[in-house]
Fold this sequence. Notes:
Layout: H1 5-27, H2 30-37, H3 44-48, H4 51-69, H5 82-95, H6 98-108, H7 119-139, H8 152-168, H9 170-177, H10 190-205
Helix pairs in contact: 1-2, 1-4, 1-6, 4-6, 5-8, 5-10, 7-8, 8-9, 8-10
Amino acid sequence: MAWDTTKTRRLLLEAAVDEFAAYGPEGARIDRIAAAAGVNKERIYPYFGGKRQLFDAVVQRELEQLAAAVPMEGADGCPVQLPEYAGRVFDYHLAHPHLLRLLQWEALYGDANAPVAGEERRAAYYAEKVAAVARARREGEGSARVGVPLPPGELLLAVVALAGWQFAVPQLARMILGGTTGEDPAGEDPAGRRAVVVELVRRLES
């Protein structure tokens, strides 16, 4: 019977997400990933080459899932308004808190001046989003604005930070804003926190 390589690869990637989110690329263990996937650990090496390459593949896969779930443009091809986009990014991180942990591990064990795995593709993805922000701004030039508008790239970076940073450092958010010490990274009132993010982005645009 032929080996289902696509299924095996998917099972390994899915099993590796929680392991890498919890322990990072250095602390994660191949045997635990293989056991969770129900796959012989020797299968990891021909598919990915090693543990660090598997980590890189996991990060890229999770970012692709974010991109697919939260596009910058709507079904009609028109850019999504930035406050709405920020709210949807917030929702995604609330449901998938592991993604920011993976990105933190990538930053911790990487060289800030060296390219990350898949950087060219990832940079192109963000360039498309910056272009969408610029296009949305041009289409809304008739609305009243106060002060000098932020460059599109700076604005997008601010949106990403506002929507996700509280999930990356929940203890800091708790100390500044108060609230629960439980596992919910958005605190006791995620809807309220989401509304604040949306409003902050709306004001950044004004």
